[in-house]
Automatic annotation (TrEMBL):
Residues 1-26 form the signal peptide. It comes from Pelomonas dachongensis. Keywords: Signal. The keyword Endoplasmic reticulum does not apply. This is Transglycosylase SLT domain-containing protein. Pfam families: LysM, SLT.
């Protein structure tokens, strides 16, 4: 007897089946050949899709359809685990599962009351925060339970970032779990010009739980581990050592710590209390189904972020809520194995990607061959300087140093994606552009020529000739006004040379020597200011 698939599942599977079948056709195309645009699906494909979509009458699933259904409903974040949206366990409220996993000892003090009062007075904020968190909560609870940790830890992003995946603190802590740059690197969270894994939902959750597990092993107490997560393990260790020397208790409530850390665990306790009994605080929690809110979809080619969002049927903001780690408007396949998409949009993405016939990425990475100005780099790639500066975040009056990586338009003839090495190591190094030149008015000496003035002020003879409307081989008349544009450092050097020349001439003759003299914009005290600055540093 044939096994039947529930009709609710069939209706959900229709677009998924089409995507999978199209994908299967694409993968069987001979190497180097592209499927012809507009080619209708094979009869067996059309028949399978029609059978899967026919919800008007009972359908008996064939063996191939059952196999496809099993593959499509596998949770690719948990290999081997199948998703059945119709089973009772998938329909229960996830908050109940969270409550059952609470393990930490409760706090009950004025700090907890203060936090409870703060949340109770802001029901709209709590609703937004919990609704936003419901997107990620199932995955976090799964990861917490795998490690045998208390499920209170799944609530930690509520007080770290309110589940805002792109949150940045005043101290530059970033992401849902608020990692500082150095700590993020310690836990293998990549941070370069293309991506910041501190904002990556999966990577940051893995790193945060690794870090909390290490801290718990170090201190043997979850409250102290949480304090160290907020304040730093070194500070908590010092506070424990101080109390030990004084013969005082070393639990969380007994340590001397900043108010921010003192308030940290009580805030988590307040959120825990709200989850346990929201009615007690006149608050409500959105229902959260006990199955994945998102699936991961493999990325095999570089693709623009905007196009990926479009193919998934999402606006750009929603797409970035699930994939906030990208720093640029392109997803590099070599660095981003997968994107996360809401369950219902994953199939749309796969289907539309299979149908898409145009280029996927309009941007690529370019390694700067020599130190150059942004204007020169922009000209090489046929784009406006302002656009190149904006997309690569280059501030004014800066040069791009050799070996830096810039994001530039991808030329039509470029077919190769960005390499894994470049995607992982790309960096941008800048140096100050040459300072603005100062206009100097000089009086020529007897022997001054265009060439001698150019050499003295370290500019080209062509520039001196242009500034003074003379030829490159011209000689200046004694006392003639000369215009020179040069940097302050060169001005000071030239002035010293002029002074030295005067001294030598005065030593040789009793007659005053005629030499180039600076009569305007005299440089004063540069060395003295530098010395003071050096002493201050």
């Amino acid at each position: 007897m044939e096994e039947r698939i529930p009709m609710t599942l069939i209706s959900r599977l229709a677009p998924l089946l089409l995507a999978a079948l199209l994908s299967a056709c694409a993968t069987t195309t001979p190497s180097g050949e592209a499927p012809a645009a507009g080619t209708p699906p094979a009869p067996e494909v059309a028949q399978a899709v029609q059978q899967a979509a026919a919800a008007a009458e009972p359908a008996v699933a064939t063996a191939p359809v059952r196999q496809l259904a099993a593959e499509l409903l596998e949770d690719n974040l948990r290999p081997g685990t199948k998703i059945d949206l119709d089973e009772p366990a998938a329909q229960v409220d996830l908050w109940g599962r969270v409550r059952q996993g609470f393990q930490m000892q409760d706090l009950d003090d004025d700090w907890v009351r203060k936090a409870e009062a703060w949340y109770s007075a802001r029901p709209d904020y709590v609703e937004r925060m919990t609704t936003r968190g419901s997107r990620y909560l199932f995955h976090i609870v799964e990861e917490v339970e795998k490690r045998g940790m208390p499920t209170e830890l799944a609530l930690l992003p509520f007080i770290e970032s309110a589940f805002v995946t792109h949150a940045v603190s005043s101290a530059k802590a970033t992401g849902m779990w608020q990692f500082m740059p150095a700590t993020g690197r310690d836990f293998d969270l990549k941070q370069n010009i293309f991506r910041d894994d501190r904002r990556d939902v999966l990577a940051s959750t893995r790193a945060a739980l690794d870090y909390l597990g290490r801290l718990h092993k170090m201190f043997g107490d979850w409250h102290l581990a949480l304090a160290a997560y907020n304040w730093g393990q070194g500070n908590v260790s010092k506070a424990i050592a101080r109390n030990t020397r004084l013969g005082l208790p070393t639990d969380y409530a007994s340590l001397k710590m900043p108010d921010e850390t003192r308030y940290y665990v009580p805030k988590l306790q307040a959120v825990k209390n709200i989850v346990l009994a929201p009615d007690r605080f006149a608050l409500s929690l959105p229902p959260v189904a006990n199955h994945p809110y998102f699936l991961s979809v493999k990325i095999e080619r570089d693709i623009d972020v905007a196009l990926a969002a479009e193919l998934a049927g999402l606006n750009l903001e929603t797409f970035q809520q699930f994939n906030p780690q990208m720093n640029k408007p392109v997803i590099l396949a070599a660095a981003t194995e997968q994107v996360l998409l809401p369950y219902d949009q994953a199939s749309a993405f796969a289907e539309n990607l299979a149908r898409h016939g145009g280029p996927l990425a309009t941007w690529t990475a370019w390694v700067v061959p020599k130190t150059m100005s942004p204007a020169e780099a922009a000209k090489r790639h046929g784009m406006a300087e302002s656009a190149l500066r904006e997309i690569n975040r280059i501030p004014p009056k800066m040069l791009v140093k050799r070996g830096s990586t810039l994001l530039v338009p991808r030329a039509p003839h470029v077919t190769a994606d960005v390499s894994e090495r470049l995607a992982d190591t790309a960096s941008l190094s800048l140096s100050p552009d040459a300072p603005a030149r100062r206009r100097l008015t000089l009086k020529a000496g007897k022997a001054d020529t265009v060439a001698s003035v150019a050499a003295r002020y370290k500019v080209s003879a062509a520039q001196v000739a242009q500034w003074n409307n003379v030829g490159r081989s011209s000689r200046f008349k004694a006392g003639q006004a000369i215009v020179v544009y040069t940097a302050a450092k060169a001005t000071a050097t030239a002035a010293k040379r002029s002074t030295a020349s005067k001294s030598k001439t005065a030593a040789r003759t009793s007659k005053p020597a005629t030499s180039t003299r600076k009569v305007a914009n005299k440089d004063r005290g540069g060395k003295g200011r530098n010395s003071v600055a050096s002493a201050a540093r």
